[in-house]
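Dear H.,

Thanks for agreeing to be a second pair of eyes. The structure we're designing against is below in token form, covering all 263 positions.
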């Protein structure tokens, strides 16, 4: 697929999706969702891709939300379908077998915050701003934000952000655990790619199982979560990576992981 609203590139096993609609601060419309979905198809079918980094083009915005021009034309059914479509694509991001890092440069509002929340963790530039301003538009978050924000930062803080629609700074976002780390704008991508490269050296199977276990364990009782963990632990041992990782430690050398997700 030819991309017009995102830039999709792969370098050294790291995929980068850059939201790229400068005239609307990278806001998400139906075309962006279509292109994001197509890029995810490629990522899911290419085993050489080991980590995905999401970012926004330009210095001002990561993604300034869903496209309000488009939202303004929706009737009830179209709104519900667009919300569901976005949710399903963001679920795919969350469930991707590889880690996803959001490198948030500038505004991450509405759907922009919601994409970042569907990623595994967030790095932000000092000028990043997070918010769910939908309430000021007479609507509510519709790409999973009401659910994921509460799970990430707690119900009270999530309700405050959703009810007021106010933005928070990168520093505030770091303080409440929404963001892992904050960097000067010029260092953000370098930092995200450095972490991505460190993760890319690890075994694909153990990364997939670690991600799945944390995700699937988050909403179940501890006992059930620990059962999920034990099952995933067993799956890791079925991969050659477990032999390689433990063997390399004993032989005092660096492990080289070759395990495949298809095994
Ligand atoms: N949609 C469409 N266009 C946008 C958007 C957007 N979300 N955000 C910015 N733009 C456009 C502006 O209209 C402007 O265009 P133009 O130059 O043609 O007038 C251009 O981008 C630059 O923006 P500003 O001039 O406003 O730049 P400022 O620096 O003055 O302000 C802000 C930057 C604060 C980010 C401001 O643009 C803003 O408030 N944008 C809207 C943010 C927002 O409300 N986002 C939430 C949208 S709703 C949503 O995300 C719901 C998700 C779930 C949907 C469920 C399906 C139904």
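And this is the sequence the design step returned. I haven't edited it by hand at all.
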């Amino acid at each position: 697929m030819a991309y017009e609203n995102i830039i999709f590139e792969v370098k050294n096993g790291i995929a980068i999706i850059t939201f790229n609609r400068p005239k609307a601060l990278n806001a998400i419309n139906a075309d962006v969702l279509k292109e994001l979905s197509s890029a995810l198809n490629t990522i899911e079918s290419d085993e050489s891709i080991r980590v995905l980094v999401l970012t926004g083009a330009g210095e001002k915005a990561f993604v300034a939300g869903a496209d309000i021009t488009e939202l303004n034309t929706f009737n009830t059914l179209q709104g519900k379908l667009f919300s569901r479509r976005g949710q399903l694509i963001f679920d795919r991001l969350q469930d991707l077998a590889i880690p996803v890092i959001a490198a948030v440069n500038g505004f991450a509002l509405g759907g922009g915050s919601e994409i970042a929340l569907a990623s595994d963790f967030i790095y932000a530039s000092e000028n990043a701003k997070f918010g769910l301003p939908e309430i000021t538009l007479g609507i509510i978050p519709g790409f999973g934000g009401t659910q994921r924000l509460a799970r990430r930062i707690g119900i009270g803080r999530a309700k405050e952000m959703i009810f007021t629609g106010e933005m928070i700074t990168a520093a505030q976002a770091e303080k409440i655990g929404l963001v892992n780390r904050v960097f000067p704008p010029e260092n953000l991508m370098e930092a995200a790619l450095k972490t991505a490269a460190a993760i890319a050296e690890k075994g694909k199977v153990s990364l997939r199982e670690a991600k799945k276990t944390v995700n699937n364990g988050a909403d179940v009782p501890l006992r059930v979560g620990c059962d999920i963990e034990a099952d995933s632990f067993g799956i890791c041992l079925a991969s050659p990576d477990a032999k390689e990782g433990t063997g390399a430690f004993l032989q005092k050398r660096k492990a080289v992981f070759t395990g495949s997700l298809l095994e």
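Two observations from my side: The two ends are 29 Å apart (CA to CA). The pocket of octanoyl-coenzyme A is lined by residues 24-25, 27, 64-69, 71, 79, 82-83, 86, 107, 109-111, 133-134, 137, 141-143 (CB under 6 Å).

Warmly,
E.
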